[in-house]
Design brief:
Blueprint lengths: L42 E6 L5 H16 L3 E6 L4 H13 L4 E4 L8 H9 L4 E4 L11 E5 L1 H15 L18 E5 L7 H19 L3 E2 L7 H4 L6 H15 L8 E3 L3 H13 L12 E2 L6 H8 L6 E3 L2 H16 L21 E4 L2 E3 L4 H6 L6 H6 L3
Parallel strand pairs: 1-2, 1-3, 3-4, 4-5, 5-11, 6-7, 6-8, 8-9
Antiparallel strand pairs: 10-12
Helix pairs in contact: 1-10, 4-5, 7-8
């Protein structure tokens, strides 16, 4: 079972093991930071996975704008969820002599040769939101508290099912069990998917153990629940198969653990096509989510999707910029976790940001009042 270590967000962690191995090797054409150079003389390579997922567009825009505001040149490239393309893009950034790399990987284990090449010429690497694995040449990691994302998704499901109250304590009024749920996970090549899953399963396991919850399909391992590349269509097809195979003959489905909004929408499509709903009030099962995508926020406002997890990418981009600037200035970036994120070779010093659960009752406070979205965007479900 995953061992969750407590920490205080914003506290400066012990700095012993950081040792920015990639900070050496300065020189013309070699890449890497020159601490005496002005920002205008330094380029940051930013590798993003895809533009088909709403949040990555927002991340990229925020990072680019923030770095350019600091005076840096930005070489930002999207890889269209194609691993060889991302490898080639990062190779090109290294060859062009960027001062630092900020990488949101498609597959965290697929970039070892690029990380080795970056280290060889002194280019430091910051992993952005997705951990880079199986290589020592990862200097820092900025992300959200991904284990807690899974905990919150599970708690949202339990709340929606009536097992927990609004304070996420036992309600004492839970429907007679067992309640039937199905479990979805993200893409196995994304390290975060495993953390989301573990946080959720650790939270749900007591309810499986005491018979409050059951999974009629029996598919309770991450390999069975995984959704390659987080694709909506893949999730919809799996949900359709689950309904056909396990929910004929009167078996009712009460809820679905969905780890991301595109999957949630695919699952909801399958449920509605089966004649469930169209809203929760009218019998649609409880469906969770993540990333607070505008289409899903409209569904939450309309009582269709139950919940999502808001990870404010403005804050993540800001922290990534702060960490990048620290490294380029020859300083050690602030970490608030130096124990949790073992990439298989080393524990990568990390800065974790908080997440928030979005429900119909609080989406305006969390998203509209903070100007993440306008009310008009929520009403239309479009940016």
């Amino acid at each position: 079972m995953y061992n969750r270590r407590t920490f205080m967000l914003g506290a400066t962690a012990a700095a012993a093991a950081l040792g920015l191995a990639a900070c050496g090797g300065e020189g013309a054409g070699s890449g890497g930071p020159d601490t005496d150079a002005a920002p205008s003389d330094q380029t940051v390579g930013v590798a993003m996975p895809t533009q088909t997922y709403e949040r990555w567009v927002a991340d990229g825009n925020n990072i680019k704008a923030g770095l350019e505001e600091k005076g840096f040149t930005v070489d930002m490239q999207y890889a269209g969820d194609d691993i060889p393309t991302q490898q080639q893009q990062i190779d090109q950034m290294i060859n062009s002599g960027v001062s630092a790399l900020l990488i949101a990987s498609i597959d965290g284990a697929s970039l070892s040769s690029q990380l080795d090449a970056a280290a060889a010429v002194g280019i430091p690497v910051i992993a952005y939101d997705r951990l880079l694995t199986d290589n020592e040449n990862v200097d820092f990691y900025v992300t959200f508290d991904n284990y807690t994302v899974g905990v919150n998704q599970a708690n949202a499901l339990l709340f929606g099912l009536g097992i927990l109250d609004e304070s996420f304590e036992p309600s004492g009024e839970a429907p007679e069990g067992p309640l039937n749920v199905e479990l979805f996970a993200g893409s196995l090549d994304d390290n975060n998917a495993h953390l989301f899953w573990q946080g959720a399963i650790d939270t749900l396991q007591p309810y499986f153990d005491d018979g409050t919850l059951e999974v009629p399909s029996g598919q309770m391992e991450i390999d069975q629940a995984a959704t390659q590349r987080w694709e909506q269509e893949t999730a919809q097809k799996r949900m359709e198969t689950l309904l056909t195979t396990h929910y004929n003959g009167g078996t009712e489905l009460d809820g679905v653990l969905a780890p991301a909004d595109p999957l949630s929408r695919g699952i909801i499509n399958a449920l509605q096509n089966r004649g469930m709903g169209p809203t929760i009030e009218e019998g649609l099962p409880i469906v969770t989510g993540q990333d607070a995508e505008i289409a899903s926020i409209k569904l939450i406002a309309d009582g269709v999707q139950h919940s999502t997890i808001f990870k404010d990418t403005r804050n993540l981009a800001e922290q990534a910029i702060i960490s990048t600037e620290s490294i380029l200035n020859g300083e050690e970036p602030e970490a608030n976790d130096t124990e949790t994120y073992d990439n298989g070779v080393k524990v990568v010093p990390s800065y974790l940001l908080e997440v928030q659960m979005v429900l119909q009752s609080n989406y305006e406070e969390l998203l509209v009042e903070t100007e993440y979205y306008t009310e008009e965007q929520v009403e239309s479900g479009q940016l």
